[in-house]
Write a structure and sequence with these properties.
With 601 residues, this protein is an alpha+beta fold. Helix content is 36%, strand content 21%.
């Protein structure tokens, strides 16, 4: 423990004693309170005096007690300690300390102080630093295993792919490769790399790194379609790489544009090396991660970025689990703020970008289990027992409107407004349900946990007993854990290429939807995906994917719940802000419009 902890123990013992008022206290009593030896207590008292926490007047002579004066209150000491921890980057420790102390006034004070630290600040060296809060750490930023939107967004800030896809123009653009071509069979593709591009640790990128990236992916692929697509990766020269496909694939170039195929440097295969890389990834992108732990993620600008140095010099994402809950945060007079939390935006910042995200929150039934889930009438009963609009009204937040599928344009008013408790009760009776308790799994996230409890209550109203199980997302991506659940509540956000997002969702080995399907449905999904991979027409590909969704809805295997709103609030001095498909902003384009007097000649 630190000296502040010991001072806190003393001060809490004598809370009724005012500051700056002396009272008698024996060394023996202090030893007892602090559970320390006399020698250690003397050392601690000296430190408390040095930090001006106390004044200490030793008693002289037998029977004369010493006198102690508390100079600061317990709350002030805790405030100093919390602020000190935050300033040292130990945000997680500060949060834990405040949680244990359970003083709402102190929490409010610290949160108000924190608010003044957040936003985009320009220091005395003209460095622009963007600092904002987030509710959880992002400790795994490996493109090979990425599975959540925030991690995906950070990967796009740190890495580059061989080429980029522009959905607005519907065309591919150079990135790490400046030119590419294929043979007439479209099974051999050759990419010519830019020269002089450096990874963040200063190593020049070559075809050896590209080959390493793809061999690493093939060895650890999360999806069957990837290993079934590439036959060989071959270095044709220091700046030339070729891919031989097993058969023509209309989406090969599209796949190469996704974050999964970000180019990483060649590295050792030791587990320690892989773990370090996941937390502190090394790419070629506009930002380099220099710190990433339970308290903070820090990224600094890559001054040698081949597409130009970012306007921001540094980004700090502070992990503060309940930051959004504090009512003192985000006042309208604050400047340079960037806010991802909807409650804060509604309370303060007038400038907010919003868009409905492509994708949907959904509930999937595990039809591989030999229980009541096998009965379609039971699944129908839950469908008709869910009032989707009421769920949105009750829980609020970013839940925006009922959904009937993954694509926003797919409106099905009958599906979305199908709430019918009487019909649900009848279906329950006909299903043969005997009151057994089913498990509904979801992963740790406040919105997920709120939705799971709401669904538990809604199911209870029609007589269904559900136990909610909340797990870390890493656990819920393990196929064996997925197989244990009767139901899983999750959501899918579609990226810039919606068809690719859906293909990966269905074909990934940790897909909730596909892992819960019976053999016939799995075969149907694979067949439709196979047809997708052969067609260059986006509309036709989306048609095959729509067939999969229609089958899932027809069998009530997946229940679609709602679409969510993506929003980012910002002060008007922040420029270059636009929402991407993940509901985030690309930090490379952000800059601070803040006019300052020029003192030069």
């Amino acid at each position: 423990m630190e000296v502040e902890d010991y001072y806190g123990m003393l001060r809490k013992t004598f809370l009724d004693v005012p500051e700056k008022e002396s009272f008698a206290l024996s060394m023996e009593r202090i030893c007892d309170i602090l559970s320390c030896t006399r020698r250690n207590v003397q050392i601690l008292l000296t430190k408390m005096i040095e930090k001006q926490y106390i004044e200490w007047l030793p008693g002289r002579g037998r029977g004369n007690l010493s006198q102690i004066v508390f100079l600061i209150s317990y709350r002030e000491m805790m405030s100093r300690k919390a602020k000190g921890l935050v300033e040292k980057g130990k945000i997680n420790e500060a949060w834990s300390m405040l949680e244990m102390d359970q003083d709402p006034t102190l929490k409010s004070e610290i949160m108000g102080w924190l608010t003044e630290l957040f936003g985009l600040k320009r220091d005395t060296e003209e460095k622009d630093v963007l600092r904002f809060p987030f509710y959880r750490p992002v400790l795994r930023l490996d493109p090979a295993t990425v599975c959540r939107r925030t991690e995906t967004h950070w990967i796009e800030q740190v890495f580059n792919t061989l080429i980029k896809y522009s959905p607005q123009e519907g065309e591919f653009r150079p990135q790490l490769a400046h030119h590419w071509e294929c043979d007439e069979t479209k099974t051999k593709w050759t990419f010519f790399l830019r020269k002089g591009i450096r990874f963040h640790h200063d190593k020049i990128m070559t075809s050896r790194d590209v080959a390493f990236t793809f061999h690493r992916l093939l060895a650890n692929s999360l999806s069957e379609w990837m290993t079934s697509m590439i036959r060989e990766v071959r270095e044709m020269g220091k700046y030339c790489i070729s891919f031989e496909l097993k058969e023509p694939n209309a989406l090969f170039l599209h796949f190469l544009c996704t974050e999964r195929y970000s180019i990483v440097p060649e590295m050792t295969s030791e587990p320690s090396s892989e773990e370090r890389f996941a937390a502190l990834p090394i790419g070629t992108g506009p930002f380099q991660i220099i710190q990433n732990n339970e308290s903070m993620l820090v990224a600094q600008a890559n001054e040698h970025y081949f597409e130009g140095c970012p306007h921001l010099d540094r980004i700090e994402m502070w992990v503060w689990p309940n930051y959004v809950e504090n009512p003192r945060l985000t006042h309208s007079d604050q400047e340079e703020q960037l806010v991802y939390f909807d409650a804060q935006i509604k309370r303060g910042l007038s400038n907010a970008l919003t868009q409905l995200e492509q994708g949907s929150t959904f509930l999937t039934f595990n039809e591989t289990k030999n229980n009541i889930i096998q009965q379609i009438k039971f699944r129908q009963a839950i469908h008709y027992g869910i009032n989707r609009q009421q769920m949105i009204d009750d829980l609020g937040g970013i839940r925006q409107k009922p959904s009937a599928g993954f694509i926003l344009e797919e409106r099905d008013e009958i599906y979305c407004s199908s709430y019918d408790p009487a019909h649900a009760a009848q279906l329950m009776e006909e299903s043969g349900y005997n009151g057994e308790t089913l498990t509904l799994y979801t992963y740790e996230m406040p919105a997920n946990e709120q939705s799971a409890k709401w669904l538990q209550k809604a199911s209870g109203k029609i007589g269904i007993s559900i136990e909610v199980v909340v797990l870390p997302v890493e656990e819920l991506y393990i196929p064996a854990i997925i197989a244990q659940a009767d139901l899983i509540l999750s959501g899918e956000v579609l990226g810039q290429q919606p068809d690719l997002s859906l293909i990966e969702m269905y074909m990934s080995r940790n897909s909730y939807i596909t892992n819960h399907r019976n053999p016939a449905d799995k075969s149907f999904i694979r067949n439709q995906i196979s047809m997708c991979l052969k067609d260059e027409n986006l509309a036709i590909r989306m048609g095959y994917l729509a067939n999969i969704q229609a089958q899932l809805k027809r069998n009530f295997s997946v229940l679609f719940l709602h679409h969510s709103l993506q929003l980012v609030g910002h002060h008007q001095t922040l420029q270059g802000i636009s929402l991407n498909a993940w509901g985030k902003i690309d930090y490379k384009d952000v800059w601070l419009r803040k006019e300052q007097p020029f003192d030069g000649v």
